[in-house]
Specification:
By secondary structure, this protein is an alpha/beta fold. It contains ten helices and 15 strands. Helix 7 packs parallel to helix 8. Bound molecules: alpha-D-galactopyranose.
Length: 396
């Protein structure tokens, strides 16, 4: 079965855009193996848009740009495969890709065969320049059938940005992951807006088909193709990675692995977070509480109430894992430190049950001892805390 758990890998778009080449892909493949990413679970190396010539060949085939890929795509795929990785490519359901290259509308079967001949294991399938009277579902289904008929097992990553509520139908047309939001940008607002918009749409993610929140920007620090506004701090990147792992969605890195900081590399390879993302039961998280914070109001005039409140900026979520464990997660999207608390009765453990929880800090590994009735933590602004918990019978 493909995509038994959320797919993991690297994609060229976020950092490199059209600045892609065989050299870059080979180097990235080397790093994925040599620096521990493959061992951590990252498997797919995906070339996004801008890899082909601007026109098809006389035979109607897609042609890799020889200036970028002088040995063709089969050679790239072979190199990636030799490294024990899987190879991914990109096309689009419209008449041109988003960057204006030829794409697969009305060429689904011939293109799927080309990809299979090159040794492609993953196809990201975009939605730009789609004919106005086209039937979106039918076209995504057509490429799904073309991939199935190609003679090769190819993971189908459908990218239609949430058009026509893909979480309701993409799984049923055979997609293994489906983008359900617009493009991520490398800033705090972008990834938190994406995450907030998908909390209610995760219940259709399950083995074989996952909601896709877009490639990670972790480690980009404003460099690359999707920077907009202030880049993230390390704690914000840690929040992004924690959200994606808690949500159980695909983990596709988008940074320049050749120049990644040690702390972001450790974050992207965090065993404890990846174990949550990859939990075999693939259950979605459940929102326990969404709250506000009360903040000092520097604009208050003398005699005025010196506080202001900000709504919907603290999130407490629970996610059940296999073997009876679960994660409790606290996200503080406000700029100020605040205390987030979870009444255990809110997660089904009223005091008379005699059952408490034993939280272990996912970032530090620290065990906090048995908590009963209520569990609360102080969380700095733009930061989060996650605890992996088991149930514990309390005496008396
Ligand atoms: C769209 C997609 C992005 C990326 C670009 C490439 O915007 O959503 O993820 O693939 O196209 O042009």
């Amino acid at each position: 079965m493909l995509a038994k758990t959320p797919p993991m890998g690297w994609n060229s778009w976020n950092t490199f855009g059209e600045e892609i080449s065989e050299e870059l892909i080979r180097r990235t493949a080397d790093i994925l193996v040599e620096q521990g990413y493959r061992a951590a679970g990252y498997e797919y190396l995906v070339i996004d848009d801008c890899w082909s010539l601007r026109e098809r060949s006389e035979q109607g085939l897609l042609v890799p740009d020889p200036a970028k890929f002088p040995h063709g795509m089969k050679a790239v795929a072979d190199y990636v495969h030799q490294k024990g990785l899987k190879f991914g490519m990109y096309s689009c359901a419209g008449v041109r890709t988003c960057a204006g290259y030829p794409s697969s509308f009305d060429h689904e079967f011939v293109d799927a065969r080309t990809f299979a001949q090159w040794g492609v294991d993953f196809l990201k399938y975009d939605f730009c320049n789609f004919p106005q009277n086209g039937d979106c579902r039918m076209r995504y289904h057509t490429m799904s059938m073309a991939l199935k008929a190609s003679g090769r097992e190819i993971l189908y990553s459908a990218c239609n940005w949430g058009q026509q509520e893909p979480w309701r139908w993409m799984r049923s047309i055979g997609a293994h992951m489906y983008r359900s939001t617009g493009d991520i940008m490398d800033n705090f607002r972008s990834f938190t807006d994406i995450a907030k918009s998908q909390i209610g749409n995760l219940c259709m993610s399950a083995p074989g088909g996952f909601n896709d929140l877009d490639m990670l920007t972790v480690g980009m620090y404003g460099k690359g193709n999707v920077s907009l506004g202030a880049p993230c701090t390390f704690e914000e990147y840690r929040m992004q990675f924690s959200l994606w792992c808690l949500f159980g969605v695909p983990l596709m890195m988008g940074c320049d692995l050749r120049a990644l900081s040690g702390e972001c590399r450790a974050l992207l390879q965090s065993e404890a977070l990846i174990a949550i993302d990859q939990d075999e039961e693939c259950r979605p998280p459940y929102l326990v509480r969404c709250g506000g914070v009360t903040l000092p109001n520097p604009d208050a005039k003398p005699g005025e109430y010196p506080w202001r409140s900000e709504d919907e900026c603290t999130y407490t979520l629970i996610r059940h894992l296999s073997k009876g464990e679960f994660v409790l997660a606290f996200f503080n999207l406000s700029e100020h430190e605040t205390r987030l608390s979870c009444l255990l009765s809110d997660i089904g453990l009223p005091y008379p049950s005699g059952i408490g929880i034993t939280p272990r800090d996912v970032f530090t590994g620290e065990r906090l001892g048995v908590k009963r009735d209520e569990f609360s933590v102080r969380v700095p602004g733009h930061d989060c805390r996650l605890y992996r918990c088991q149930l514990s019978r309390c005496d008396g």
